[in-house]
Amino acid sequence: MISEADKLNVEKAIGEAEKHTSGEIVAVIAQASGGYYYVPYLWAALAALIVPWPLIYWTWMPVQEIYLIQLAVFAVLALVLHYQPLRFALVPRSVMRQHAHQRAMQQFVARDIYTTPGHTGVLLFVSAAERYVEIVTDAGIHAKVPDSEWESIIAGLTTEIGNGNAGKGLVQAIQRIGEHMAAHFPAGPGKQNLLPNHLVMLSTE
Question: Is the per-residue pLDDT at 170 higher than 80?
Answer without folding.
Answer: yes
